[in-house]
């Protein structure tokens, strides 16, 4: 059973203060040790909070909002602007989340996938050997580096492809590691481990961060109850193909979400960010593994039969696992509520966004490894709420490439003309737009990144590399 949040935060506050006091007397490696930052004081709300929700999709979110299942997201939609968010083919998670924080295409930032050996890496970049793509492979500056140059502070928790955490002045980062150890890794979205270094910057926060990490083995069966009625060991359902692995993923997913919340709340006062980013993954990882069980038993039976899986348990599978995807969404909403209560104020711009959408897959599922899954859809979601945002607006035509230019513009900074997106002005009210004309500079890099290999996406879908809402 996981220790209570109160216990953990009391410990974290003390440890953080101790860690920073040590850094102040040792080498002043970062500006965390500057005397104007009173230890233990409660940090002000961030100016921008970016909530990354993997695979969030209006076809999933809208019905849940209508049923009152997502009260925190509902409040943001009510007071803010919302719309579809165009993504980039082939809708590959590391590519897109890196595009979100760079405003650049994969041909510019060079993060093609989690691993360098897969078919999503074009031949000149593909390696024969299985290697992690990490923050060191990124060839474009990330939002946190750009903000740092302007003296602004960033706190990023759980962001995809951010490992190892980068040491940048004013940046606090907790970066999940993609493990190549099959005993530890159940999905490739990155996990937090108490025994692996490189996940935290500034490094002196590691002893504190370590205490906040929840690993899958810390998650009790009771904590899985809101998601599923997990059958006991030896039950025939647990013998179905991929089922043990998928149940492991469920436990991993709860641990990862819990870690993101604890790390964000536990380190927020130390990070004191102008811009906060955090990321939740269950809308993707659990939907890849439990999607079909939401459907009527007939649809489940059909899917299983297509994959040559015994369909005798269709009704029971629906009863036990039909609520996994909704439970993920309710859980994310609850966590977002708690996180925003602590980190956002009335003056904060809150941006909720996803890397692509998610929906039904054909029978059989195109990926034989995912017999119970749905599939990626082109469009994700964007919700913006804050003082400058046009309330109640439904805004089309924004893409994942526009997010970094939009955040820079909102903070009064120019964006790079070699970024492939531009500020999403339609989110903001006319008076604010008039008072804040966008500015750009040629580039923030050493030289403009104008050559873009595989700009049509790889493997290409030439007709529509940038998905439908654009
Ligand atoms: Zn996915």
Q: Calculate the mean pLDDT score and round it.
A: 91
What CATH architecture do you see? 3-Layer(aba) Sandwich
What strand order characterises the main sheet? 5-4-3-6-1-7-10-2-11
What is the element string, with H for helices and E for strands? Answer: HEHHEHHHEEEHHEHHHHHEEEEEHEHE
Number of helices: 15
Helix content: 25-40%
Number of separate structural domains: 1
Radius of gyration: 22 Å
Instruction: Say what the CATH topology is.
Output: Alkaline Phosphatase, subunit A
Cα distance spanning the termini: 46 Å
What would CATH call the class? Alpha Beta
Low-pLDDT regions? 23-39
Backbone shape = globular
Number of strands: 13
Tell me the β content: 5-15%
Describe this protein's structure.
The protein has 470 residues and is an alpha/beta fold. It has one domain: Alkaline Phosphatase, subunit A (3-Layer(aba) Sandwich). 33% of the residues lie in helices and 11% in strands. It has helices at residues 5-25, 58-66, 71-79, 93-102, 106-109, 143-149, 206-212, 243-271, 282-285, 287-290, 297-306, 314-321, 324-343, 403-410, 430-435, and strands at residues 48-53, 81-86, 154-157, 171-174, 200-201, 275-280, 349-353, 357-359, 375-377, 380-385, 398-399, 415-416, 440-441. The strands form 3 sheets. Strands 5-4-3-6-1-7-10-2-11 form a 9-stranded mixed beta sheet, with helices on both faces. Strand 12 (415-416), helix 15 (430-435) and strand 13 (440-441) form a beta-alpha-beta unit. Helix 1 packs antiparallel against helix 7. The protein starts with a helix and ends in a 29-residue tail after the last strand. Bound molecules: zinc ion. Zinc ion binds next to loops. Residues 55, 93, 284, 288, 376 line the site of zinc ion.
